[in-house]
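Deviation from plan, reported transparently: nicotinamide-adenine-dinucleotide complex.
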Amino acid sequence: MTRKTVLITGASSGIGAATALLAAKSNYDVGIHYNSDERGATLVSQLCQEVGATTRVFQANVGDSDDITRLFNEFDLAFPKMDALVNNAGIVDVPARVDEMTPMRLHRMVSVNLVGAILVAKEAVLRMSTQYGGDGGVIVNLSSAAARLGSANQYVDYAATKAGIDIFTKGLSDEVANEGIRVAAIRPGIIETAIHAKGGLPDRADDMAPSVPMQRAGTAEECAAAILFLMSEDASYITGTSLDVTGGR
Ligand code: NAD
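Because the crystal trials were delayed, the predicted structure below was used instead.
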């Protein structure tokens, strides 16, 4: 079976790392992107190679458009084509009410979670679209349950960027449906990853578990499984959809 190629942003940890490993086991060669955690990215790369994948590690800040251009140029040199993109890199900030949010915080949130994700998807479209000589492909974006719940008193800025990802997923899917590209998203709920500690709430997943109908936080591997399904031929008639991975939340 011919191996396919996927680029996963933010793959040095959490959902991105779990998706890289599952993709490697599912016959993908993997472009592993990271921002600052080179050690994490190298470890993920080694684990992917152990299950037979060819890998390359790329550094870029997705909040910087020049970095994104460089990332894709490096990808082009490393891999013959891009079959899938997992547009996973994202940030939260410390919990705050909107009246406490500084312009700097809001600009950073929007430039990484929304502008960055759109620019990354744009570069993928340029490589996948049959209109530009590509063979088609699949883009899976990372939204969040926050896109529907709003995250009042914590991260309304984050929730707004993820709601933007949902509607971007729908709009882009319509735009490229006739160019061989499917675009979908997952909306994780409370997932046990380091993102909560980065937002200053290391126990958030455990603390919120009782509010989940399934009474537990989800795992990065459960998100990876949903992402790989959306990437697969089993999802060949699914586009424009954001899939909840929330334990019912
Ligand atoms: P994580 O912190 O482990 O992963 C986020 C990744 O994005 C990291 O590898 C980080 O280095 C990368 N990143 C952050 N800023 C970047 C930048 N400026 N440039 C490049 N890369 C950058 O957390 P995670 O939970 O695995 O998050 C993955 C995605 O899932 C994010 O988009 C997040 O918003 C989304 N999500 C997570 C949860 C959850 O509960 N964990 C819930 C909903 C959505």
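The chain has a mean pLDDT of 97. We consider this an acceptable substitute for the interim report.
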